[in-house]
Amino acid sequence: MYDIVGTGTVLTSCVAFWLFNKFLDDNSEPVKVPEKYSGYTKCKWRNVMGSILHAVLVSMVGFYCVFRSPEYMSERVTTHTTLGEVNICITIGYLVYDAFDLIRFQGVYSTWPILTHHCCLYLLGFGCIMYHQQLVAYALMGSMIETNSIFLHGRQLLLMYGFSKDSLIYKINNAFNIFTYITFRLIGGSIMLLVFLPADYDKMSSFWFVVFTLAILTLVVINVILFYRLIRSDFIAKDYRSSNIMLSPKQAEKTAIKET
């Protein structure tokens, strides 16, 4: 499908996400912008909204493709369907627009980790998958992992709107966030790295095996680091603050110094 249809799908995806962001920029209703992000930093709120939309769309299509065509899980190298390739093109279009939007409003210096993630791991990887029409199953598994992004970005959105970490809605989202993070990003990524790739070694070239191994390994390492930061922010730091509530400011400061 990597022809005029694939290129057209990528461009359509770019334009669609641009129109979505333009709608958020031009309309304060029905989606109200958090007061803190109503100025120049509105782009950060808008970026989160776009990320949630992308995650919902591609994760649902990814699951549908796999359930409709179970051969994706048995013949991971050669199986490809039109809908699966369309889903990949949608992601490529989103990443192209998102990279442009980040550079335009937030600059390269502050967003280089995300840009590196977009360009090296997804744009290059997904682009090569579409060009060779192989390993589509791995891209769809990546789309299914985006299920967690719904709750991960949802957490960020709740904080933007000023919800307390002790609020019920935050705790519910946090429970789904932790569960899907472990299930999809950590366990799912590890299965792709340690089970699927070695099983498919004889079915792909050594070059692609090394490329995908390094890419997935990088993602797993990044996800482990981010998971630690997530746990530290929502649980460890929270417990530390709670333990110091009954202390005087000087005592709390001494305790903090000792723990560092």
Can you describe what's shown?
This protein is mainly alpha-helical. The chain has ten helices and no strands. It has helices at 4-26, 42-68, 71-74, 82-106, 108-132, 136-145, 147-160, 168-199, 206-243, 249-259. The N and C termini lie far apart (55 Å). Mean pLDDT is 82; it is low at 242-260.
Brief synopsis:
The chain has 260 residues and is mainly alpha-helical. It is built from ten helices and no strands. The C terminus is likely disordered.
Features:
single chain, 260 residues, mainly alpha, disordered C terminus
Question: Can you lay out the helices and strands and say which pair or pack?
Answer:
Blueprint: H1 4-26, H2 42-68, H3 71-74, H4 82-106, H5 108-132, H6 136-145, H7 147-160, H8 168-199, H9 206-243, H10 249-259
Number of discrete helical segments: 10
Tell me the distance between the termini: 55 Å
Give the C-alpha Rg: 21 Å
**Quick one: biggest sheet?**
none
Structural class: mainly alpha
Low-confidence stretches: 242-260
The percent of residues in helical segments reads: over 70%
**Rough shape?**
globular
Q: Topology as H/E string?
A: HHHHHHHHHH
Rounded average pLDDT: 82
Number of strand segments: 0
Strand content bin: under 5%
